[in-house]
Design brief:
The protein is α/β, with parallel strands linked by helices and 940 residues long. Helices cover 34% and strands 20% of the residues. It is built from 33 helices and 34 strands.
């Protein structure tokens, strides 16, 4: 084989890689697998991708590079045979409410182009088709249709507006015109003429009156030009015998009512452009409206006792003085129940009012002047929400508001003009609301419905849209609608959508690196994903996938297994070869694939404690009025295909309800009817995959609060007590004990113009982060810096005699993270590691036996062996009587559950129902469930 058929990596040392050399075959589907933390991402992303990106940026001029910020050379000797690299990671997509599936995949952009160039416009008044003419066509129509008749040609100036228009008539007169048509009657202009300013008027200026014949073509030409100029591209012809008007326009216009649309552009259909966005909701489709039931929750309470929630109880303030004035004026007391306050007084309190009045004092008989000048509670809350700088004030205002669908556009985000451009009876919003399957069917038969002219214009656009839709179908995203916001997508969905976009770009000779694309995918859809990656390979690309999924490993052309352990025990290639060769190796991965090791199915399922939480009538997103019972004291697994509604049911409905009940959480749950059984739990803990810290200063020790205990321990040593050192002395984040040269960072950043910043070990503290005096304090012979460099395993033994620290460290070790160091920067932890540290932090707290744990796909980034360790920990929790609820597709987890809730059937609008519930043994007998089909093979 020629050497260039390989991507050669020599001496890779990023993170924990042990100076390894790798030969990766090009133009093949290569899977890199191994334990979590063994160095897979370090090789794929931090070495190969980082070098590819750096080389690309090197091609720019030095001037351009200074704006991009340089990229560091990865710690590797040499990489040969590297193609341009594209990485598709799970970094979640844009969280803006303006980003939708349609805009990310660019299908919506093509739809905008299609509607701007090939759609027919209809009048929003009469639903008639809009027409536009050239000047020549207008002339020919007048000559043909009004031949021999006496007509007036007019230019419309005012349409249904109030005013006296004296200046307008003077202006028209100065331009040499003698007559105008006002509200349907033609009159001569007189000096000082004006109209009733409180009535609405229609005014047209009479440009010319003539008898139509072929002899007056030139005069007609001039008249039409003048009329269109004066009437802003619209003119009107009136048959003077019958007095019936007809409109003509250079722009799109309704022939009977005369309303006109500007000529459409792609921007006309964009909800992110002022040209197309609905004016009321600014293209978001939702508006925040004040909910009066939140402002006055109980009408039996008085204003004095806090009946108006935003104001609270009566205090000595300007607002309460104003309320006192309103009470004087409408003769009620602030101690009266709100239901007894006169209606007009309550209206002023809520909506504001302005008046002065006199009252004669009953005791002294003196008349006193009062003034009410009150903007109203509703306007005050609105102002704070729209104009306050502080986010906490905005959040306060939002407490009294509901997000409701915009009334003006019915949630469609566009102006009404844009919604009246149609192709075969569908406007652009109708298409955006279809799911991808429906859209594919609509486009399949579109040619038959278009006119010849439309076909010529649209054929290329339709071809583009069809191919993009097909890619979404290929990666199993057929249930998404184009108007779905990107922030509601899971990490796996976002990643597969970017994959579809990449396949769509049809690049060749590129190296694609993917980070666990199977996340959030049901076994059923796995094959679709693998086919997509094979397609990328077949058109001439190299594909490297970091993955643990067995199907993916079996379908790979070449597999690298990294290990043998994790962290400092990993970083070596333990096996490289085809899938068949991998099975013969003695590695952990091979053990699980061949079945030499496996996660055992429990002999019997837990019975639970007999109590449950019952949720009724959940209707968020695609849920179809779902009612479901969660038995407590068991391990529950929620399964179902992607997009079936699992996250909506658990993360968006159940968790916010529990969180609000126990901790007064502010997140609003999706709509539901009722919930029973909340008194049966006393803690709820949600463990997701967001990073534990975004700065290099956060680490496992600081996140789990172990570092606080260690600092206190050091402060209690005899030497520290003599010197008067407090725990703060041992922190690298505050002045005092840290090294001031590097401010506790351990490295100094040297800025290089045109090159990436260089990180140099701090020469004062040699990377130890603390100053000399602090490092002199030792506990059992180790300084604070030595402790931060210990792995969790070493530290667990070292602090055996200190129960508080030992317990926390042992839980981190128990979830399989014994290999990371206490001081490892949290930015270098993988997603699976971050989630397990969170889990460890929660586990180290004392559980009550009535805790409800929620885990969303905890197997992300975990190897078979890691899953076994994780499930041991979760089983311990459930054995103590706690409830553990896991949203999961991984069958090794599903088979261990005591109770399964399967959501389906499909994703999107064909999902949102509970298919079946029960133990795994009961579930496998269900005829239709996809989960049952795959679980059956495993349990057999």
């Amino acid at each position: 084989m020629k050497d260039q058929e390989y991507l050669d990596v020599y001496g890779a040392r990023a993170h924990n890689l042990k100076n390894i050399d790798v030969k990766i075959p090009r133009d093949q589907l290569v899977v890199i697998t191994g334990l979590s933390g063994s160095g897979k991402s370090s090789l794929a992303f931090d070495t190969i991708y980082a070098e590819g990106q750096r080389r690309y940026i090197e091609t720019f001029s030095a001037y351009a590079r200074q704006f991009l910020g340089g990229l560091e050379r990865p710690d590797v000797d040499k990489i040969d045979g590297l193609s341009p690299v594209i990485s598709i990671e799970q970094k979640t997509t844009n969280k803006s409410p303006r980003s939708t599936v349609g805009t990310i995949t660019e299908i919506y952009d093509f739809l905008r182009l299609l509607f701007a160039r090939a759609a027919d416009a209809y009048s929003y008044n009469t639903n008639l088709k809009m027409i536009s003419y050239s000047d020549e066509q207008i002339k020919e129509l007048i000559l043909k249709e009004y031949s021999g008749k006496k007509v007036a040609i007019l230019a419309p100036l005012i349409k249904s507006r109030k005013g006296h228009y004296r200046e307008l008539f003077e202006q028209i007169s100065k331009q040499g015109f003698l007559r105008v048509r006002v509200d349907g009657a033609i009159i001569e202009i007189e000096k000082g003429m004006k109209l009733d300013r409180y009535k609405t008027h229609d005014i047209e200026v009479v440009i010319d009156r003539l008898i139509v014949s072929n002899d007056i073509e030139n005069r007609l030409d001039e008249t039409i030009k003048t009329a269109l100029y004066s009437g802003d591209n619209i003119m009107m012809v009136i048959d003077l015998e019958t007095n019936t008007p007809r409109y003509f326009s250079r722009e799109l216009m309704c022939p009977t009512s005369g309303i006109a649309y500007p000529n459409p552009e792609p921007n006309t259909f964009s909800f992110n452009s002022p040209k197309g966005a609905c004016d009321v909701c600014n293209g978001l489709g939702i508006v925040n409206e004040i909910n009066l039931n939140k402002v006055i929750p109980d009408h039996k309470i008085s204003i004095k006792n806090g009946g108006i929630a935003p104001l609270g109880e009566q205090k000595n303030s300007w607002i309460f003085k104003q309320l006192q004035n309103i009470a004087e004026r409408y003769q009620f007391k602030l101690t009266d129940a709100i239901k007894d306050i006169p209606k007009e007084a309550l209206d002023i309190i809520l909506n504001g009012g302005n008046e002065s009045f006199e009252i004669t004092s009953k005791t002294a008989g003196v008349r006193r002047n009062y003034k009410i000048d009150f903007e109203g509670i509703v306007a005050f809350i609105n102002n704070q929400f729209n104009h306050a700088e502080s986010t906490s004030i905005k959040r306060w205002a939002k407490n009294y508001m509901d997000e409701v669908c915009c009334n003006n556009c019915q949630g469609k985000r566009l102006k009404k003009e844009a919604l009246h451009f149609k192709i075969t009876d569908k406007n652009i919003s109708d298409l955006a609301q279809m799911d991808v399957t429906e859209l594919a069917n609509w486009f399949a038969s579109i040619e038959k419905k278009l006119s010849k002219k439309q076909l010529i214009i649209a054929s290329e656009i339709i071809k583009e849209i069809r191919t993009r839709i097909q890619f979404l179908l290929d990666v199993g995203l057929d249930y998404l609608t184009l108007d779905r916001t990107s922030k509601s997508l899971s990490g796996g969905e976002a990643q597969r959508m970017r994959l579809a976009t990449q396949i769509g770009s049809q690049l060749v000779g590129v190296l694609y690196i993917l980070d666990e694309p199977s996340i959030g995918l049901h076994q059923r859809d796995n094959q679709k994903l693998i086919d997509s990656l094979v397609k990328l390979r077949d058109i001439g690309n190299s594909v490297i996938v970091v993955e643990h999924d067995q199907d993916m490993i079996e379908n790979a052309d070449f597999v690298f297994d990294i290990g043998p352990g994790a962290g400092k025990h990993g970083g070596q290639i333990v096996s490289a070869g085809t899938f068949k060769e991998l099975k013969k190796q003695q590695t952990l991965t091979a053990d699980y694939i061949t079945g030499r090791k496996k996660i055992e199915i429990p002999k019997k399922r837990r019975k639970g404690n007999g109590k449950s939480i019952e949720l009724k009538g959940a209707t968020g997103n695609n849920l179809k009025n779902v009612s479901v019972s969660f038995p407590l004291g068991k391990m529950i697994c929620v399964t179902g295909v992607s997009g079936s509604g699992k996250s909506t049911l658990i993360n968006e409905t159940l968790y916010p309800i529990l969180n609000a009940h126990i901790y007064r959480g502010v997140k609003k749950p999706m709509p539901y009817k009722s919930i029973k059984g909340l008194e049966n739990i006393d803690k709820v803990i949600d463990i997701d995959q967001s990073p534990i810290g975004r700065t290099p200063r956060s680490n496992p020790a600081t996140y789990t609060k172990t570092f606080d205990e260690i600092r206190s321990l050091f402060a209690k040593t005899a030497e520290a007590s003599i010197r008067g050192y407090k725990p703060g002395r041992f922190s690298f984040n505050v002045k005092g004990g840290r090294c001031e040269t590097c401010q506790g960072g351990g490295v100094r950043v040297i800025e290089m113009n045109f090159l990436p910043d260089v990180h140099v070990e701090c020469e004062t503290c040699q990377g130890k982060r603390f100053n000399r005096e602090t490092l002199e304090i030792r506990y059992k012979g180790k300084s604070i810096a030595d402790v931060l460099d210990m792995t969790i395993e070493e530290a667990t033994d070292f602090f055996e005699m200190i129960p508080k620290i030992h317990r926390k460290l042992k839980t981190i070790k128990d979830v399989g993270l014994g290999y990371i160091t206490l001081g490892q920067q949290s930015t270098t932890l993988s997603g699976g590691e971050a989630q397990r540290i969170k889990l460890a932090a929660e586990l180290s707290k004392r559980d009550t036996g009535n805790t409800f744990y929620i885990l969303d796909e905890p197997t992300t980034g975990l190897h078979f062996e890691d899953i076994r360790v994780l499930m041991e920990v979760l089983n311990k929790l459930a054995n103590k009587g706690n409830t553990v609820l896991i949203i999961e597709h991984n069958l090794d987890v599903v088979k261990l559950a005591d109770y399964i809730i399967d959501v389906g059937m499909e994703g999107g609008r064909n999902g949102g129902k509970i298919l079946c519930t029960g133990t795994p043994e009961e579930i496998i007998n269900h005829k239709k469930s996809y989960t049952a089909k795959f679980l059956k093979k495993l349990l057999k």
